[in-house]
Amino acid sequence: MKRGIYLFPSILTLSNLAAGMVSVLFASNGHYTSASWAILVGIVMDMMDGRVARWAGATSQFGLELDSLCDAVTFGVAPAGLMYQVALSSMGRSGAAISIFFVMAGVLRLARFNLKAQTGEPSTHFTGLPVPAAAGILASFVLSYELFGNDTIPARTIPAVMHRMPTFYRFVPVMMMLLSVLMVSQVQYGNFKQLKLGSPKSIQTLVVLVGGLLLVFIYPQNMIFVIFCLYVLSGLSRLAVRFYYAQRAKRMAPQKWGRRSTDVGDPGASH
Known about the structure:
78% of the residues lie in helices and 2% in strands. It is mainly α and 271 residues long. Helix 9 packs antiparallel against helix 10.
């Protein structure tokens, strides 16, 4: 029984790897929608294995290393190959270089995550864009793009999103480069592992998540893409806010020191 508890998270992790390999096979045969769904299934498996391992008390260094190796395939190689087939192959060597750069950035991100995980320090955020999120935005983009001008696939769509699909398609190389840089950056992203349902803030987050899931049920392809885009932008918005307050503090500091020096030189300041 104890051995089975330890094996179950590893089986979920290997299912993640299997989903990544299935995605590679689908993409190589031109089945881009199926390849994208396979990556999203891998994301679900990746979310489940860590939580199951923590719930069962079956976390281990072996599981950590296995998870990263599988993630490198499912969220690095698979989405890079998919995007090369969909949008980058016409660019020749430049398109291949962008795909390779994405994989390299993802592997570096995973290696850094493993190194920080070995310290055992709890963290309320991720440093750098998580690799599954980078893969998710690419896979969900393909799902939405495959619906553009295709009436044979019965699916509800959001017109505001679908009308911008050609624009998103033109900026695929820029999007992949940006995602690659964000993965190895110091930009902070939300970590939902520490979510406590008892706190008011967490309850608000839970309400938003439930609302998002309902929208995903109604507009699956489009809303998955929108949610991943919002998550990517959330880190950039946090960075912009921190930069604004840091610059504001620098501007205010000389004024405070100037007032203090004036007070010291004022003979009537002590009265």
